[in-house]
Design a protein that fits this description.
The complex is a heterodimer of chains A (about 300) and B (about 525). Chain A has about 300 residues and is an all-alpha fold. Chain A is built from 13 helices and no strands. The longest helix of chain A has 30 residues, at about 5-30. The termini of chain A are far apart. Chain B has 17 helices and 20 strands. The chains are: A mainly alpha (about 300), B alpha/beta (about 525). Chains A and B meet through helix 7 and helix 8 of A and helix 2 of B. Bound molecules: adenosine-5'-diphosphate and magnesium ion (MG).
Chain lengths: ~300, ~525
C-alpha cells in the first residue's frame, strides 16, 4: 500500500472540503434568514470563472478571489430580490439561478477553455510543522483560504448563537412576524444575509478555481459541489461547526474512488462510491423540498416562505 | 386641539389621584379593502388605570390597538402622548414612547429561550450577549411584577399562560408604560385568568396603563376602571366605574340588540343509537391517551364531554372521525363499523365533524367559502361550482355568515363567521345526510353574538333528530346544552350524569380527578 497516495488523498479531501465549507456556510446564512437558495451551484460556477478571468487578466489571485466573491453576492441579490421583494416561489427562483448561472459561466468561459491558471494560491508553510509525517501535509499543508474557511465556521457559530444580530437572524428564519413586530425589517435582514451567503459561496467557487482545478472545465469544474453544499446544511442541522465535519466527510468520500482505483482495490465498484455523495444529496434535497419535512429536520421554521405582514 | 371633550362625559369615578391622560387617540380612521375598521374613534387611557375596549369580533379592537402601538398608521386622526402629539411610524417608535402591545397571536419564537425572546429587538443591547447577565435582568423584571418565569426555558415547551407572561415581561423589559393586551384571556383557563388579573393590578399599582381588550362581559366588569364599547368600527358608548356596570347594557352596546346567552335545552324524546363506542383505547408512543371508553349517543340527543384540555378530548374526536385508528375497541355510526375505516367512510355513513382547529383542520384558509363547502360534497373529477353556488348563497344567509358572498376567502373571515361556514358545511350534508355531529369547542374565541347563533344552530340540528357529541372545555356550555354529560379525565370517562340534574361541584371535582 502506498502511504503517499493516502496522504495525498487526505490533503485533497480537505481541499474539496474547503469549497464545501464556504459554500455550505453561505447556504446556511441564507437559510437561517428564511430564504432557500437552491442556486448555489450556479453561483459557484459563475464566480469560479469570473475569478479565473479576473486573476488571469490582473495576475493577482487576491483580486480573483475578491471579484468571485462580489459576483457571488451579486447573483444572490437577484435571488434575494425575487424571493423577498417579489415573493417568488423560492424553489423555482433558485433552480432558475442554477440554469442562469451555468449558462452565464459557460458563456464567460469560452475564452478560458483550454487555458490553465497561471497564478495559483500556494499552501502556507509552517516550517518544520509541515514536515511532520502524515499530519504535517494534512493539517499544516493547506493554503490560507482553507484556514480562513474553518475560521469563518467558528466565527459564524459564535455570531449565530451569542450575538445580538445573530439572534435577530435566527429569529427571522424561524418567525419573521415576531421580528417584524419588533420593528426590525425582515426584508432587509433577508436580503443582507442572502447576499452575504452569496459572497461566501462565491469565495468558495473562486478558491476551487484558483487553488484546485487546473483550468476551466465548464460544469465539471464544480461537479455538483453546490448541491452537496445544500445537502450538507441539512445534515449539519443548520449549525456551522457541524459543517466542518460534514465537509471533511464528504471530501473524503468524493476522493476515495480515485484513491482506491490507484491502489487497485476493486471489491467495491468505484462508480458506486462515486455515486454515494450524490445519493445522499438527492435524499437530503428531496426531504428539504417538502415543507412538511423541513420542521422535522430542524430547518428554520419559515424557510422558503415569503413574509407578508398583513396576511391573516 | 380639544382632547377633553369626550372625557367630560366620564364622570369623576376615578380614584387614583393623578388621573393624567397617558395616551389618547383622536378621530382615528383606519380602512382596509372593503371595511372601515375604525371610524372616527376617540380613545384615551390614564396612568395607573385599566381601560377596556369591548366589542364583538370584527368590531375593530385589534385594529385600534395596532394603531395605538404604531403597527398600523391611521388613515386619519392622530395620537397624543402625555399631551404632546406623536407620530408612530412603526412598533419601534411606539416602544420608544413606552407603548407595547401583547398580540392576540403571540409574537414569540418558539425555539428560543424565554430570555432570548425577551431581548429580541432591544436596540440597546451590546453586540455580544452575556447570557448570565441577561437572564438575571429578565428574571428581576419578571419578579418585580409577580410574573415568575424561568429565563432558560424554551418557549415552545411553555403553556399558553406562561407564554403570555413572557410577552408581558418582554413589554415591561422594553420599558413599556402603556400595555395593550389584545384578548389576553381568550387563551387562558380560569385559574390563569385570575393570575393575569393579579399581574394587571400589580402593573397599574406601579403606575402603568393597561388597555385591556375583550369580548367577555363578566371579566370586563371585573377588571376595568373604564370601558369603551366598539361596534362596526365605531364607538357606541362609554361606561365607567368598576362593579357598578350593567352587563345587559354593555351587551346591548356591543351587539346592538338584546341577546339571550343561555340557549335552553330542548326536551324531547330521543331515538335509536347512532354512535356506539365500545371499549375504545388508544395509545400514542406507548402512552395511554384513551382507556376503555364506552358510550352511546342517540338520535336527537346531545351528549357533552367535559374535561380540562388535554385529557384525551381531541384524540377521542379524531378517533370517531376516523382520523386515528384506536389501539383497541370499536366505533360504529348508524350501525356501520367505522373503526379503522378512515374519515371518508365515516362521513359516508353520516358523520359530520367540526374540529377544534377551525382554520387549520376545518377549513382551507386560502380557499373561498364556496370551495370550502365543496370539499365534502360528491367527489367528482371536475369541480361543479355553478350548481353549488346558489346553495352556498342560501347557506350564507341561513347561517348568518357575514361575508361578501360565496367567493369570500375563508382566512378573511372572523372566527365566528369561519365557525358558521364550518357548521354550514357539516350540517348541510355532504355525501350523505348528517346523522352524527361531533363538535369540538364550537364557541371558543367567539363573541357573544356568534356564540348565540352557533349554539342555536347546534340545538336546531339536535331537534332535527341528529345525534350530537359536544366536546368542550367550556363547562357552562356543556352543562347548559347537553342531555347527558360525561367527564373525561386522563383519557377515561370518570363521571356520567344527566344534563338537567348535573351538579357543577360534582362535575368540577370529576374534571380535577377527585371523584
Ligand atoms: N389586515 C387586514 N386586512 C383586511 N381587513 C382587515 C385586516 N385587519 C382587520 N381587518 C378587518 O377589519 C375589521 C376589524 O378587525 P379587527 O380590528 O381585527 O377586529 P376585532 O379585533 O375587534 O375582532 C374586520 O372586519 C376585519 O375583517
Ligand atoms: Mg381582535
Amino acid at each position: 500500500m502506498n502511504e503517499n497516495i493516502w496522504i495525498l488523498m487526505s490533503a485533497d479531501a480537505i481541499a474539496i472540503a474547503t469549497t464545501l465549507i464556504l459554500a455550505a456556510l453561505g447556504a446556511l446564512f441564507t437559510e437561517r434568514s428564511g430564504v432557500l437558495n437552491l442556486g448555489i451551484e450556479g453561483i459557484l460556477l459563475t464566480s469560479a470563472i469570473s475569478s479565473f478571468l479576473a486573476a488571469d487578466a490582473s495576475g493577482s489571485v487576491w483580486l480573483g478571489l475578491i471579484v468571485g466573491s462580489l459576483i457571488g453576492a451579486l447573483l444572490a441579490s437577484i435571488h434575494a430580490v425575487l424571493s423577498v421583494v417579489f415573493r417568488a416561489n423560492q424553489i423555482v427562483a433558485g433552480l432558475a439561478l442554477v440554469i442562469f448561472g451555468t449558462g452565464l459561466a459557460n458563456f464567460l468561459g469560452k475564452p478560458a477553455e483550454g487555458k490553465t491558471v497561471t497564478t495559483v494560491i500556494n499552501p502556507l508553510s509552517f516550517g518544520p510543522l509541515s514536515d511532520i509525517p502524515v499530519i504535517g501535509p494534512i493539517v499544516f499543508g493547506q493554503d490560507i483560504i482553507t484556514y480562513f474557511a474553518i475560521a469563518v465556521a467558528i466565527v459564524a457559530s459564535r455570531y449565530l448563537f451569542s450575538t445580538r444580530p445573530g439572534l435577530e437572524l435566527r429569529a427571522t428564519g424561524d418567525d419573521p412576524a415576531t421580528v417584524d413586530a419588533q420593528g426590525l425589517s425582515v426584508a432587509r435582514i433577508r436580503i443582507r444575509y442572502t447576499m452575504i451567503g452569496g459572497a461566501l459561496v462565491g469565495l468558495g467557487g473562486s478558491w476551487l478555481m484558483l487553488a484546485q482545478s487546473a483550468g476551466w472545465h465548464q460544469a465539471a469544474t464544480t461537479n455538483g459541489l453546490g448541491w452537496i453544499a445544500l445537502a450538507l446544511v441539512v445534515f449539519a442541522g443548520w449549525r456551522p461547526m457541524r459543517i466542518i465535519f460534514g465537509a471533511v466527510l464528504f471530501g473524503f468520500t468524493l476522493q476515495l474512488p480515485f484513491t482506491l482505483q490507484a491502489e487497485q482495490i476493486t471489491f467495491i465498484p468505484s462508480a458506486f462510491l462515486e455515486m454515494l455523495p450524490y445519493l445522499a444529496t438527492l435524499i437530503a434535497l428531496i426531504a428539504l423540498s417538502r415543507p412538511g419535512n423541513r420542521n422535522l429536520l430542524g430547518a428554520p421554521r419559515a424557510l422558503g416562505t415569503p413574509f407578508v405582514r398583513d396576511e391573516r | 386641539m380639544s382632547n377633553t371633550s369626550h372625557e367630560v362625559a366620564q364622570g369623576p369615578h376615578h380614584t387614583s389621584g393623578a388621573a393624567s391622560t397617558a395616551l389618547s387617540a383622536h378621530s382615528i380612521d383606519k380602512k382596509f379593502p372593503g371595511v372601515l375598521a375604525n371610524d372616527s374613534v376617540d380613545f384615551d387611557v390614564r396612568a395607573g388605570e385599566v381601560h377596556t375596549l369591548l366589542g364583538e369580533n370584527g368590531a375593530g379592537k385589534s385594529t385600534l390597538a395596532a394603531v395605538l402601538c404604531g403597527l398600523y398608521q391611521p388613515d386619519a386622526g392622530y395620537l397624543m402622548r402625555n399631551g404632546k402629539r406623536i407620530n408612530l411610524s412603526s412598533p419601534r417608535a411606539g416602544l420608544q414612547h413606552g407603548i407595547a402591545m401583547v398580540h392576540q397571536h403571540f409574537r414569540l419564537v418558539e425555539r428560543f429561550t424565554v430570555s432570548e425572546n425577551v431581548i429580541l429587538g432591544s436596540r440597546d443591547l451590546p453586540f455580544k450577549l452575556n447570557r448570565r447577565e441577561i437572564n438575571e435582568k429578565v428574571a428581576a423584571v419578571a419578579e418585580s411584577y409577580g410574573l415568575p418565569i424561568d429565563p432558560d426555558a424554551t418557549v415552545g415547551d411553555l403553556s399558553v399562560g406562561q407564554r403570555q407572561r413572557v410577552e408581558i415581561v418582554k413589554a415591561l423589559y422594553q420599558g413599556a408604560e402603556i400595555l395593550l393586551l389584545d384578548e389576553p384571556t381568550a387563551v387562558l383557563v380560569p385559574s390563569e385568568v385570575e393570575k393575569l388579573f393579579e399581574n394587571v393590578h400589580a402593573m397599574t399599582a406601579a403606575g402603568k396603563s393597561i388597555v385591556f381588550i375583550s369580548h367577555k362581559l363578566g371579566e370586563v366588569v371585573e377588571i376595568s376602571d373604564r370601558v369603551t364599547v366598539l361596534r362596526n368600527g365605531r364607538v357606541t358608548g362609554h361606561v365607567s366605574g368598576r362593579g357598578t356596570t350593567d352587563t345587559k347594557e354593555l351587551a346591548r352596546l356591543m351587539v346592538g340588540r338584546d341577546i339571550e346567552l343561555n340557549a335552553q335545552r330542548a326536551t324531547h324524546a330521543t331515538g335509536h343509537e347512532v354512535l356506539q363506542i365500545r371499549n375504545l383505547s388508544l395509545s400514542i408512543d406507548d402512552v395511554a391517551v384513551l382507556t376503555e371508553i364506552s358510550f352511546n349517543v342517540h338520535a336527537g340527543e346531545m351528549v357533552g364531554i367535559a374535561g380540562v384540555a388535554g385529557n384525551g378530548q381531541r384524540e377521542l374526536a379524531d378517533t370517531i372521525a376516523g382520523l386515528i385508528s384506536p389501539t383497541s375497541g370499536s366505533v360504529s355510526i348508524s350501525g356501520a363499523m367505522t373503526t379503522d375505516c378512515g374519515p371518508i367512510q365515516a362521513r359516508e355513513v353520516g358523520l359530520a365533524y367540526v374540529p377544534e382547529d377551525r382554520l387549520g383542520m376545518g377549513l382551507v384558509p386560502s380557499m373561498s367559502i364556496l370551495d370550502n363547502l365543496l370539499l365534502t360534497r360528491d367527489r367528482q373529477i371536475v369541480v361543479d361550482r355553478v350548481s353549488v353556488r346558489p346553495e352556498a348563497a342560501r347557506l350564507i344567509e341561513q347561517f348568518e355568515i357575514k361575508a361578501n358572498g360565496p367567493d369570500h376567502l375563508a382566512r378573511k373571515l372572523s372566527g365566528g363567521n369561519a365557525q358558521k361556514v364550518l357548521l354550514a358545511r357539516e350540517l348541510s350534508g355532504g355525501r350523505s345526510a348528517t346523522k352524527l355531529l361531533v363538535v369540538c369547542s364550537p364557541t371558543r374565541g367567539l363573541d357573544v353574538g356568534a356564540i348565540e347563533t352557533v349554539r342555536r344552530l347546534i340545538n336546531d340540528a339536535r331537534s332535527a333528530g341528529q345525534a350530537i357529541l359536544l366536546i368542550s372545555e367550556d363547562l357552562d356550555e356543556v352543562l347548559s346544552l347537553s342531555d347527558r354529560v360525561l367527564v373525561l379525565y386522563r383519557g377515561a370517562v370518570v363521571h356520567e350524569t344527566s344534563g338537567e340534574t348535573a351538579q357543577l361541584s360534582q362535575v368540577g371535582a370529576a374534571m380535577a380527578g377527585l371523584s
